Amino acid sequence: MSVAINISHGVKKYGDTTVIPDLSLSVKNGEFFTLLGPSGCGKTTLLRMIAGFNSIEGGTFKFNDTVINDMDPGKRGIGMVFQNYAIFPNMTVRKNVEFGLKYKNFPKDKVREEADKFLRLVHVDQFADRMPERLSGGQQQRVALARALVIRPDVLLMDEPLSNLDAKLRVEMRTVIRQIQREVGITTIYVTHDQEEAMAISDRIAVMNKGVINHCGTPINIYLRPANQFVATFIGKSNILRGQLSESGGKALLTFGNGYTAPIATVRPEEIRRREVNVSVRPEEFVIRPAGAETREGIEAVVQDSVFLGSNTHYFVELSGGEKAEIIQETDIDSIIAPGSKVSLSVNMKKINLFDSETENSIMKGVINRTDEQDPGR
């Protein structure tokens, strides 16, 4: 049976060093929840606290209404999938999957049948009698997943499970993991530093930095309306430019470094006043045109380099104020703008994000950042 996970004011310390200062989080029953962040941000530490492998120095950790702070790891009803697979090299694929069942005193006459059921679920049943050394990385990871699921845990914890695979296998395996998680309906907490992986598989994501959750929400909300500048730059690519916000007739105006001014309707009303802001513009939110082309006033820039990537071309430009930016545009069938060319840039004002220049927190409408289970963005 799957469970909901509730963490209230969790604290983790190593001696005098506090790794997680005060973390609260709720994961829904059956949810695929991802902890995302750079190396050293505390995501694996938090996962190990949930698993019972790390001590808890403060706060309350619950599975449904049961406090698990001091519960033995073996009694928490957890399945684990690790980065290095942790498959027993001296056992066949089938015996690896059977191991957990035998440990849980599953009826002996049903062990093989149950193991084979889960081998079929992850599509490695044809390798049941092989030794792990004869499997590819992706196949070994499927075996690890089957072994974790066969014991029918309440919670599935996955720690960077795809980081040792090549790019093509990672894409294949993340699809497999998501499909199986939906089929089984198990509450899953997944740790990764790969933002694309997190966006592709998660119901919700918690973006962590220095032991603190900076933004918790759905992939689309985190990408389109990040809660602060760190999240904007960590999730996807983002150009951070200087800007000035002003007010005219109750409406917000944004002025870029070179003086180009445009109205912006997505700032929260209480935040509209004359102030310095940091402007986050994702590469696809620019439109680039050769200078002199019939277009509205825009930001002047010079192309410094371009990279042709088939359907898209990436341009690297220097704005008139000296700032640098990357732009992704659909490849023009006629030509690619040459380095040294003067261009004019316009911006999708509905999609850009503004952050207070001092706090680096968002001042935009539509930011949904909730660590409780009643996330309205889902």
Description of the structure:
The structure is a single chain. A hairpin with a 4-residue loop joins strand 17 and strand 18. The protein has helices spanning 43-51, 93-103, 111-121, 137-149, 167-184, 195-201, 219-224, 229-234; strands at 5-14, 17-27, 32-36, 58-63, 66-67, 78-81, 155-159, 187-192, 204-209, 212-217, 239-248, 251-256, 261-263, 275-281, 286-290, 299-309, 312-319, 324-330, 342-347, 353-356. The strands form 4 sheets. The chain has a 6-stranded mixed sheet, with helices on both faces. It has a 5-stranded antiparallel sheet with strand order 13-12-11-14-20. The chain contains 8 helices and 20 strands. By secondary structure, it is of the alpha+beta class. It has 2 domains: 5-229, P-loop containing nucleotide triphosphate hydrolases (Rossmann fold); 230-356, Nucleic acid-binding proteins (OB fold (Dihydrolipoamide Acetyltransferase, E2P)). Helix content is 21%, strand content 34%.
Q: What is the general shape?
A: globular
Secondary-structure content class: alpha+beta
CATH superfamily of the largest domain: P-loop containing nucleotide triphosphate hydrolases
Radius of gyration: 25 Å
Number of DSSP strand runs: 20
And the CATH topology of the largest domain?
Rossmann fold
- Listing every helix as H and every strand as E from the N terminus to the C terminus, the arrangement reads EEEHEEEHHHEHEHEEHHEEEEEEEEEE
In the CATH scheme, the class of the largest domain would be Alpha Beta
Overall pLDDT level:
92
Distance between the termini: 23 Å
Q: In the CATH hierarchy, what is the architecture of the largest domain at level 2? A: 3-Layer(aba) Sandwich
